[in-house]
Amino acid sequence: MTVLNREWYQTIARRRSRRLYEVRPVAPATLEQLNRSCREFKPFPEVRAVLVPALEEEVFRGILGDYGKIKGAPAFIAFLGEAESPYLYERVGYLGEGVILEATRLGLDTCWVGGFFRPEVAARLVGMRPGEKVVAVTPVGYATCRWSAEEKLMTGFGRNHQRKPLVELATGLDQSCWPNWVKVAMEAARLAPSAMNRQPWRFEVGKNTITVAVDNLHDTYNIPKRLDCGIAMLHLELGALAAGVTGIWEFLPSPRVARFIC
Q1: What is the mean pLDDT of the chain?
Q2: What distance in Å separates the CA atoms of residue 50 and residue 19, rounded to the nearest whole number?
Q3: Which residue numbers delimit the Putative nitroreductase TM1586 domain (predicted)?
Q4: Which terminus of the chain has a lower count of CB atoms within 10 Å, N or C?
């Protein structure tokens, strides 16, 4: 399953980052479907996703005490890869967002956690291989109906997507000249989640290409911006696919991240 699931595009608008969960288990059949996605969606050989069907609270830690802490989720997924891979973070972001959108498709809630978790605990639970690094994790379960003030603050948008307009994010080909597939792909990429909603991606639109780059080289919240950009890459490709266009990714040195070529 190295190809994208076309249904993931439909989940982009529904996905929200949730930190408070109901204390109830996920149905075994649903967990198995998600686990199969973790095993089979392998767009890059050096990164992988591992589902742990029993949450150990020590995996997560808050920013200050219990502030921002994940609470109540019955399972979690770890996203990890070879520590020396030159494109580790963007590839983990791309892979992980695919798995997270699959969880959303299955009716589950999630939350990217890239900076405030205990990687040594996650590594022990997933059976990390020599040379690997746990980059990020997500809780998996059913979120409470109530949104806490912490969730709204940390996601940056609560129940409504708050994103920068494309005019602030895109350069290159004038928007009036964008073909339909570019419009759909860019809107999907714009809705990608990022740490504290920082939206660090920038896009350069060419005739048959879209190049993803970071806004600057200063990482914040102890989370690499290239991880966020990998998430946006997945959204971008899903949007292009929904508009009938396929392509390939060419990875690039910093501050650029990758170029989508159709």
Answers
A1: 91
A2: 20
A3: 9-240
A4: N
What does the pLDDT look like over 176-224, one tens digit per residue? 999 999 999 999 999 999 998 999 999 999 989 999 999 998 998 889 9
Helix, strand, coil shares of the chain as percentages rounded to 5? 35, 25, 40
Full set of structural domains in the chain with CATH: 8-154 (3.40.109.10), 163-261 (3.40.109.30)
Q: What is the 3-state secondary structure (H, E, C) of 79-128?
A: EEEECCCCCHHHHHHHHHHHHHHHHHHCCCEECCECCCECHHHHHHHHCC
Report DSSP letters for 60-73, one per residue: B--SSTTTT--BS-
Give the tokens for residue 256. 């650029």
pLDDT of residue 157: 44
Q: What pTM value is reported for the model? A: 0.93
Q: Residue 189 and residue 153: Cα distance in Å, rounded?
A: 22
The interaxial angle of helices 88-105 and 28-40, nearest 10 deg, is 150
Q: And the tokens for 64?
A: 């200050």
Asked whether the predicted pLDDT for residue 261 surpasses 50, the reply is yes
DSSP 59: G
Cα separation of the two ends of the chain: 21
Judging by DSSP bridges, how do beta strands 170-172 and 201-205 pair with one another? parallel
User: CA 178 to CA 29: how far, in whole Å?
Assistant: 43
Cα 135 from chain centroid (whole Å): 12
